[in-house]
Amino acid sequence: MSAQLQQEFVNHYGKQATNTYFSPGRVNLIGEHIDYNGGLVMPCAITFGTYLLVAPNNEGVFRFKSINFDEQAEVSLQADHKKEGEVWYNYPVGVINYFQQAGKELQGLDMLYYGDIPIGSGLSSSASIEVVTAFALNDLFNAGYSRLDLVKLSQSVENKFIGVSCGIMDQFAVAFGEENKALKLDCNSLDYEAVDSNLGNYVLAIINTNKPRKLAESKYNERVHECQTALKALQQQLNIKYLCDIDTETFNKCKGLIEDATVLKRAQHVVEENDRVKLAAEALNDNNLAEFGRLMYASHDSLRDLYEVSGKELDTVVEYAKTNPNVAGARMTGAGFGGCAIALVKNTAFAQFSQEVTAYYTDKIGYAPSIYSSLIGDGVGTLNEVVKS
């Protein structure tokens, strides 16, 4: 991959790249729709991601090219940087803008991006681009930012420059991921634990439903509001700041405070899912993939029945997975209404799983999913740090 990308850089810019960086995508193994409720999530970095090759120029400009997209740009160091429509290079321009507003001294760069994350799949291609750009600038210009600073910076770019109100989980997983580790992350305090997640003879199957997630944003905002309504009801008796400040036992004692049946279901999912993350960490620490798989299925059932953010496409994948003895567990991952499901599949059975789930899904839905195999990988770094020989 490195030699191919170097040749692409030469083809584009007529010179060799001086530095190469890689930032992964991510999946959330368990703990869905928890980040805005002050609870625990468990993402991991995957082995797909974004490659960035750079070389300095003496012209005081940043040049952006991508192997994945036709759009390219040249931006002056002195320019007042603003978002331009819906083009991919808004993400690195936003990062550069942040560095300059913070008074960091930058010089011109020729930059070539290549990503093997499926676009629009919910595997955090945008966070991957942001973090690899921030890491590269920090490295090249000795900006002095910590890894956590880069996470917060990248989230700020997404929120303020791009205009997407995401939580911090995606950027955090992309930056702090560790090989064979899941990150049990407290979205409120940003404390985290790297949980041993040796998949043994299993691989992480990522099943992209190939359904556009058109409903996700409006329904996401609706769910946030429903959770806030539940929280206010519980605060009549409980001194809590977030729904995830209580466990299932406490919730069951106080749930009568929530009068709306739909709001009650939303809160039940959040509290029980937060408890599932704690149990999932214990299962992984004990190398008990069977129990972890059971919790994955329970998470999906809750997202389908209580939180109602799944859909026919995601349910069909999980429905098939439950019939396959080579699958330890499966669930939707991400905001829902399309995007991806994940499954733990025996590596010797992955090819058969791919064929069978494709046939089952195509018969039910009318078009095929895309299936990928990944291990749990490292976070952002220079290429020789993250590509194992």
UniProtKB/TrEMBL annotation:
<feature type="binding site">
    <location>
        <position position="220"/>
    </location>
    <ligand>
        <name>substrate</name>
    </ligand>
</feature>
<dbReference type="InterPro" id="IPR019741">
    <property type="entry name" value="Galactokinase_CS"/>
</dbReference>
<feature type="domain" description="Galactokinase N-terminal">
    <location>
        <begin position="7"/>
        <end position="56"/>
    </location>
</feature>
<keyword id="KW-0119">Carbohydrate metabolism</keyword>
<feature type="binding site">
    <location>
        <position position="158"/>
    </location>
    <ligand>
        <name>Mg(2+)</name>
    </ligand>
</feature>
<keyword id="KW-0479">Metal-binding</keyword>
<keyword id="KW-0460">Magnesium</keyword>
<dbReference type="InterPro" id="IPR020568">
    <property type="entry name" value="Ribosomal_Su5_D2-typ_SF"/>
</dbReference>
<dbReference type="InterPro" id="IPR006204">
    <property type="entry name" value="GHMP_kinase_N_dom"/>
</dbReference>
<dbReference type="Pfam" id="PF08544">
    <property type="entry name" value="GHMP_kinases_C"/>
</dbReference>
<feature type="binding site">
    <location>
        <begin position="120"/>
        <end position="126"/>
    </location>
    <ligand>
        <name>ATP</name>
    </ligand>
</feature>
<dbReference type="InterPro" id="IPR036554">
    <property type="entry name" value="GHMP_kinase_C_sf"/>
</dbReference>
<comment type="function">
    <text>Catalyzes the transfer of the gamma-phosphate of ATP to D-galactose to form alpha-D-galactose-1-phosphate (Gal-1-P).</text>
</comment>
<dbReference type="InterPro" id="IPR006203">
    <property type="entry name" value="GHMP_knse_ATP-bd_CS"/>
</dbReference>
<keyword id="KW-0299">Galactose metabolism</keyword>
<dbReference type="GO" id="GO:0006012">
    <property type="term" value="P:galactose metabolic process"/>
</dbReference>
<keyword id="KW-0418">Kinase</keyword>
<feature type="site" description="Transition state stabilizer">
    <location>
        <position position="26"/>
    </location>
</feature>
<keyword id="KW-0067">ATP-binding</keyword>
<dbReference type="InterPro" id="IPR014721">
    <property type="entry name" value="Ribsml_uS5_D2-typ_fold_subgr"/>
</dbReference>
<dbReference type="InterPro" id="IPR000705">
    <property type="entry name" value="Galactokinase"/>
</dbReference>
<protein>
    <recommendedName>
        <fullName>Galactokinase</fullName>
        <ecNumber>2.7.1.6</ecNumber>
    </recommendedName>
</protein>
<dbReference type="GO" id="GO:0005829">
    <property type="term" value="C:cytosol"/>
</dbReference>
<dbReference type="InterPro" id="IPR006206">
    <property type="entry name" value="Mevalonate/galactokinase"/>
</dbReference>
<dbReference type="GO" id="GO:0005524">
    <property type="term" value="F:ATP binding"/>
</dbReference>
<feature type="active site" description="Proton acceptor">
    <location>
        <position position="170"/>
    </location>
</feature>
<dbReference type="GO" id="GO:0000287">
    <property type="term" value="F:magnesium ion binding"/>
</dbReference>
<keyword id="KW-0547">Nucleotide-binding</keyword>
<feature type="domain" description="GHMP kinase C-terminal">
    <location>
        <begin position="280"/>
        <end position="360"/>
    </location>
</feature>
<feature type="binding site">
    <location>
        <begin position="32"/>
        <end position="35"/>
    </location>
    <ligand>
        <name>substrate</name>
    </ligand>
</feature>
<dbReference type="InterPro" id="IPR022963">
    <property type="entry name" value="Galactokinase_bac"/>
</dbReference>
<dbReference type="Pfam" id="PF00288">
    <property type="entry name" value="GHMP_kinases_N"/>
</dbReference>
<feature type="domain" description="GHMP kinase N-terminal">
    <location>
        <begin position="90"/>
        <end position="177"/>
    </location>
</feature>
<dbReference type="GO" id="GO:0004335">
    <property type="term" value="F:galactokinase activity"/>
</dbReference>
<comment type="pathway">
    <text>Carbohydrate metabolism; galactose metabolism.</text>
</comment>
<dbReference type="Pfam" id="PF10509">
    <property type="entry name" value="GalKase_gal_bdg"/>
</dbReference>
<keyword id="KW-0963">Cytoplasm</keyword>
<feature type="binding site">
    <location>
        <position position="66"/>
    </location>
    <ligand>
        <name>ATP</name>
    </ligand>
</feature>
<keyword id="KW-0808">Transferase</keyword>
<feature type="binding site">
    <location>
        <position position="126"/>
    </location>
    <ligand>
        <name>Mg(2+)</name>
    </ligand>
</feature>
<comment type="similarity">
    <text>Belongs to the GHMP kinase family. GalK subfamily.</text>
</comment>
<dbReference type="InterPro" id="IPR013750">
    <property type="entry name" value="GHMP_kinase_C_dom"/>
</dbReference>
